[in-house]
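Board notes (copied after class):
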Amino acid sequence: MTSRIDLLVVLHNSKTRLTPLFASLSRISIPVTLYLLDNNSQDGTPEAAALAIGDLPFPAFLTRSIRNNGFARGMNLLAEMGAAEFMFILNPDTELEEGALETLLTRADSDPGIGIAEARQFPREHPKTSDPVTGETTWCSGAAALIRRSAFRSAGGFDERLFFMYCEDVDLSWKLWLKGWKCVYVRDAVVRHFTQDLTPGKRRTLENYFSFRNSLFLFYRFGSADQWRVLWNFLARRLLSSSYSFKSRILFGIAFIDHIRYIPYLLHTRDTWSGVKHPWIRFEETSLSR
């Protein structure tokens, strides 16, 4: 049977997570094709993945990169490797509960207007709302989401020029909403996500840097004059508040300076995405309000 789903996973120093990840993938009961991209891992990830994919019950392909492409470019590269109707983007630090992907596909098939369908993450979810009846939500996390390929293409894929990691999923979701597609949350599709904030002692320097800088990108692209207070409050909390350490505030300051070089590109693309108000584009449900 022809696969309707390309399963896309970007790897980077993910060796310790491969065994549980692949064990959960082996339980998928519908045809899929797996595409893996290793982003220049240094811990033996590609060698371990090459051995493990031979035991999977579906076709699997591994590509190695000599550079770390980040998440957005990595996913764009993987998207070009297949041609299935749907793409299931998945983090390597996850495990699918039985039936998760099947449930996502059933939901997407029930409404051709759905562009992206997000699984419920356990034990921790992003603090955002969803409609209790339709499941429509402000944005879908890139950790575990089924995307209609035609929707992905209509939005131009992930913006790899802006995003290395963090906020690229919010950006894509809002572009999908503005293109007329729906972003939905599917509570019955469960994925265990072992996020780094659940790892004791994990340093978050890069994550904090990109989260701060990329949040600014979202405002430039989608914000309006009546929402400036959101931006000012965000900057005050990060740069002036004592709730963050001096080192963190220095890091945020460097990220703020770095974002300036992207302003011409952001202003150029803003004309494409900021002309229409949309009820599901909500800055209060992103890192700009936390």
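Comment from the instructor: The chain has a mean pLDDT of 93. The chain has two domains: 5-195, 203-289.
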